[in-house]
């Protein structure tokens, strides 16, 4: 997941040709392929994939026409893009039922089974990492055919500014009690503890982490895979929503964060405005390069068996592409040991790197920790996956919670209505 950016209308983003069916016959020896992704150049994926493009061009003689997009450009307009003559040959796309799953069920994404077999990608992508790459005929993740290939993992973790903790004589917390005590001590010293961006994904990730502290597997399956009824007024959802409201009331989260985006939250942590940030591993590489003189460390959220996270975003090959073999060859290059090692040494979470080739101690520790998370089956995925509109709806509901216009029960009632309607109209539920 990349930092989300506001987007203009589709017409202002790109010129799209007429939509409809097309001949997807292969070009045996294409001169070029078109690749779209939205990773930042200074992030781990951006560095690795830029090198993969250079290596691909050198080894194959095929020119890569690369276009940088934003997360929102692709998220909001994917179906129009993929049903047009301007569709790329390889595209980074968000994983989950309401995104890749929905498009796979609409016939807009290529079935990758043959390429998985040819390149043996399933030996590198297995277990919980494989779940968001496979979809059944309705577009529900976890089984069926391969439509997406990830090259990295994601987890949402706590970032601590150790310099600020030391300044106020506060220990890095290991338990929920210690976390709240630390936040109160910062508050007593006039410092708001948690850097938040309620207008985008950071607070919904915190909300979901708090849900996961109390949720059992039955609730997770019901929420993510429509396997049973979601208890929106039950202990897990209520605890999470109450806790955020309590932290706002106590001044641990600023009410002013309702208008802040993910990039604002990350930048405010980097500037030392806030001592804590709960956000994704996608920040790790940026913090390494952008704040080299700040002493910071990471850990999993205290006292939880499951954490938000999953495979990274996935490579997809649009069904309209006429250069699928070349596209698959590029994807395979991003899974090469050399490219995976580069990603790991750039602060990312590669899934097929050689641990002995990861040089930075912090990166080595991060990768080892994530490998343990995978081994222990601790990934709880993300809260916006179930419906195509729930990302925005969850943000809106949490904004109302933070600014005090709705209480816990009202927010959860509203979210339940939005969730149920989104699942019902999506046609995903079995």
TrEMBL record:
Pfam families: SBP_bac_1 (PF01547)
Cited InterPro entries: Bact_solute-bd_prot1 (IPR050490), SBP (IPR006059)
Protein name as annotated: Extracellular solute-binding protein
The organism's taxonomic lineage, starting at the top: Bacteria, Bacillati, Actinomycetota, Actinomycetes, Bifidobacteriales
């Amino acid at each position: 997941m990349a930092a989300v950016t506001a987007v203009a209308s589709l017409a202002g983003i790109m010129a799209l040709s007429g939509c409809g069916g097309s001949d997807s016959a292969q070009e045996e020896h294409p001169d070029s392929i078109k690749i779209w992704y939205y990773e930042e150049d200074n992030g781990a994926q951006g560095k690795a994939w830029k090198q993969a493009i250079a290596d691909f061009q050198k080894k194959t003689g095929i020119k890569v026409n690369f276009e940088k997009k934003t997360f929102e450009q692709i998220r909001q307009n994917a179906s129009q893009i993929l049903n047009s003559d301007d569709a790329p040959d390889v595209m980074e796309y968000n994983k989950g039922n309401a995104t890749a799953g929905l498009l796979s069920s609409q016939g807009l994404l290529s079935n990758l089974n043959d390429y998985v077999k040819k390149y043996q990608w399933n030996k590198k992508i297995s277990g919980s990492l494989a779940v968001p790459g496979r979809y059944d005929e309705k577009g529900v993740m976890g089984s069926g055919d391969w439509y997406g290939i990830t090259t990295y993992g994601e987890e949402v973790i706590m970032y601590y500014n150790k310099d600020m903790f030391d300044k106020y004589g506060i220990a890095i917390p290991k338990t929920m009690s210690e976390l709240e005590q630390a936040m109160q001590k910062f508050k007593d010293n006039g410092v708001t503890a948690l850097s938040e961006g309620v207008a985008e994904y950071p607070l919904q990730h915190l909300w979901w982490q708090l849900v996961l502290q109390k949720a059992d597997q039955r609730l997770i399956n019901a929420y993510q895979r429509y396997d049973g009824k979601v208890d929106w007024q039950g202990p897990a959802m209520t605890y999470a929503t109450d806790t955020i409201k309590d932290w706002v009331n106590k001044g641990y989260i600023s009410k002013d964060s309702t208008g802040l985006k993910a990039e604002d939250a990350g930048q405010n942590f980097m500037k030392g405005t806030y001592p804590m940030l709960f956000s994704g591993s996608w920040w790790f590489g940026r913090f390494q390069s952008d704040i080299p003189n700040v002493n910071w460390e990471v850990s999993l959220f205290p006292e939880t068996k499951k954490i938000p996270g999953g495979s990274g975003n996935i490579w997809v090959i649009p069904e309209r592409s006429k250069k699928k073999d070349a596209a698959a060859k590029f994807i395979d290059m991003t899974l090469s040991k050399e490219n995976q090692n580069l990603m790991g040494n750039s602060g990312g979470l590669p899934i097929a790197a050689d641990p002995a080739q990861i040089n930075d101690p912090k990166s080595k520790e991060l990768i080892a920790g994530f490998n343990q998370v995978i081994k222990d089956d601790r990934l709880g995925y993300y809260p916006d996956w179930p419906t195509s509109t729930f990302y925005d709806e969850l943000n809106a509901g949490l904004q109302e919670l933070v600014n005090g216009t709705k209480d816990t029960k009202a927010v959860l009632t509203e979210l339940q209505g939005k969730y149920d309607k989104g699942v019902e109209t999506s046609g995903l539920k079995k």
